[in-house]
Design brief:
The structure holds 2 protein chains of 2 kinds. By secondary structure, chain A is mainly alpha-helical. Chain A has one domain. In chain A, about 75% of the residues lie in helices and about 0% in strands. Chain A has 4 helices and no strands. In chain A, helix 1 runs parallel beside helix 3 and helix 2 crosses helix 3. The radius of gyration of chain A is 22 Å and the shape is elongated. Chain B folds into 2 domains: about 90 residues, Rna Polymerase Sigma Factor, Chain: A; about 80 residues, Winged helix-like DNA-binding domain superfamily/Winged helix DNA-binding domain (Arc Repressor Mutant, subunit A, Orthogonal Bundle). In chain B, about 70% of the residues lie in helices and about 0% in strands. The longest helix of chain B is centred in the C-terminal third of the chain and has 30 residues. Chain B is elongated and about 65 Å long. Classes of the chains: A mainly alpha, B mainly alpha. The interface between A and B is large, with 33 and 45 residues.
Amino acid sequence: MSDQKHCHDLMETLSDYVDGDLSPVLCEELERHLRECPNCRIVVNTLRKTIELYQKETQEETLPSDVRERLFRRLDLTSFLK
Amino acid sequence: MSNSPVDASLSLDALRAGDRNEFARLVDLFSGKIYRLALQITGNTQDAEDVLQETFLKAFHALPKFEGRSSLSTWLYRIAVNEALMILRQQKTQFSLFEDNDSGEEKDNVDLQLVDWCCLPETELQSTETRRVLDEAVQRLSPALRLVFLLRDVEGLSVKDTADALGITESAVKVRLLRARLRLREELSAYFSERMEKSS
C-alpha cells in the first residue's frame, strides 16, 4: 500500500468508517488517504460489499411454513394461524 | 434503550397483560429472525426449531415481568442465544462466548487480498454457489466472532444492543466485529478472485 502508516490506521477505524460512526475529522483524513491509495479503496469497497451480501442473503429468507405451524401449536396459538 | 420501529408497533401493556392476539403478532414479527439466528448458531434445523419454541415459551412466561430496560428484540435475542448455547452445552459442543483477546491490541497477521470483485455481475454475487460460500465462511468464524457478526450485521442490532444481548462490553463488540468482517472479506476475496481468474 502507498503509505504504510495511513493504511494501518485505516484498518483500525474501518468498521467505524463503514458504519458512518467515525468523527468528521478522522473521516476527512481517511477519505483523503483513500483518494490516493487504490489498495485501501479496494479493502473498503470489498468490506462494504461483504456486509451487503450477507444482509441481502438474509432478507430473502423466511420462516418455513411447517416450522411456523408447529411453533403456533406449541404456543397454543393455533387460532391465530392464517 | 433503543426501540426499533418493529418494537414500537407492539403494545407492551397488552403483552404484559397476556394478550394472546398481541403475543401472536410478536411471534410473527420475530420468529423468522430468531429461527435464522438459532440455525446459524446450532447448525441444524431441529435444534434451531427447539430454540425457537423455547425462546417464545420463556418469553411468554417472562413478559409480565419485562421491565423494558432493553428493547423487546434485544431481550428476545438474549433468550434465544442462551437457549442455543444451552443446547450446544448439552451436546458437549465447545462453544465459548469469550475471546482470548478483546483489546484489539493484537493484530491479525493476514496478507490482505487486494482483488476488486465489487463489479462482478449480481448474478455471480448472488448465485447459489456464492450463498454456499457465504454460509461456510460465517460458520468458520470462531463462535465469539460469529455471534457478534450475526447480531450486528445480519440482524441489524446496534453495538449497544449486541453488547447487551451477549453480556459483553461495547468495545469488545467493536473489536470482534472488525475481526469478523475482515476475515469474511478475506474469504470472499479469495473465492471471487479464483472465479475471476477462471473466467478471464
